[in-house]
Amino acid sequence: MKIFSAQQIKNCDSFTIKNEPIYSLNLMQRVADSCVNWISNKFKEKENFYIFCGNGNNGGGGFALAKIMYHNGFDITVFLNENENFSKDAASNLKKIKQISGIDIFDFNDAATFNFKENAVIIDAVFGTGLNRRTNKKEVDLITFLNGVKLPKVSIDMPSGLLADQMITDQTVIFKADETLSFQFWKKTFLHPETGIYCGKVHILDISLSEEFIQDETTSDYVIDDQLIHRIYKTRSEFSHKGNFGKTTIIAGSFGRVGAAVLAVKAALKSGSGLTFVHAPKCGYEILQTSCPEAIYLYGGENHHDRFQIDHDTVVGIGPSLGINTDTESAFMDFLKSCDQPMVLDADALNIISRHSQFLARIPENSIITPHPKEFERLFGTTENSFDRVELAREKAAELGIYIVLKDHHTQIITPEKDVFYNITGNSGMAKGGSGDALLGIITSLLAQNYSSKDAAIFGVWLHGKAGDLAAEKFSKEAMLPTDLINELGMVFKSLA
Predict the structure, then answer these.
(1) Over the stretch 50-76, which tens digit does the pLDDT of each residue have?
(2) CATH 3.40.1190.20 fits 229-496, yes or no
(3) CA angle, 224 then 230 then 232, to 5°
(4) Which portions of the chain are predicted below pLDDT 50?
(5) Structure pTM?
(6) In the chain, is it the N or the C terminus that has fewer CB atoms within a 10 Å radius of its CB?
């Protein structure tokens, strides 16, 4: 799914109105209808809805929503800024609700002294994607007050005060929603930690904007959706053998930290690797042979890696708990010099490179690196925020000819062509040591199975998150383990068949 800027979304609306053709007021009605259906199902036990409407088209949609919900039997109260001029469509819808005696209308200033009922919902339709100015004192005071009201909160289009595709300042006051109902597209601001925290759970509603525009309009930002995954996923031929599904070698582990190797290997096996090797110190031999009998052990040293002897026809995933011992570091540098095939690098492999930045250029083209924000910072330098971090990642992916899997709540896959794919599977239960080791195993296994580097990164991150969601449903976010995630991979693959 494409992610568009605020201007592109505005252009899409205009194109739809011109070419469908449809009146802008009717498009606003589509927005209201889609919201009513969702709100009515979600809050069917609630009686009172307080709808806060701005003077633009988002407010116009709020007025239309108020009218429909009133006729559906809900108690509706509307708040607005009486001193503002309204857009043409907003004014038209406002006129209609003023003719309904059962809908009470108040000014924003009245909210602070209003007696809100308990069995109620607050709906924010003050600003939407079109916000292009600083909020005034009246609006700031309103949003600040509403954030303190202990009622469920829903934002229409996006939480008021947020910008669709820009970072916010520390002084910005933003409505904090429990649910956000947006239309047709994800917005970049939903997907970054500094801004997404205000959105609650995001729901993308279809309002039938022009497919022609969406198809033809270019962007470099995407959300990984089911349609993309089904295009990437390769079903297995019945007439196949282990040689058809590649050779995976996981290089991981050191004394006291062999668990990382176990998790990476198990994830590789569960992701379909035809033949799986584990290159590890002898101290982990019995652990690995017992816990991963399907994998072939390769000697890497006694208590830490001091050599890397790898077949050339295997795909390597390297880094989990490798350690940064001097011998390990030296052996890894020699190994990197000799490699010319794409590999997957994580954790200590990246930490070693960050200490010797000249070796960044040694990473083979089309390799995949999987840093978390701190590892990324050590490799490439600090940035002010996650928006800037993604832009730096674009430049580095292009410069080095590699794929960067930037781990976050919504992990980003950045390509050498500077495209960014945001993942929306996964949950906070995966924020545990070992989850990254599993991800390395999954991606390396897919790369060994002849998925392209791009597809292996995208599919691997999606698989990892989807399995994490299943594990959280079964065990809870608090109690789920990376091992549980790995064990759910089979259910994810079954859902794709």
Answers:
(1) 999 999 999 999 999 999 999 999 999
(2) yes
(3) 80
(4) none
(5) 0.96
(6) C
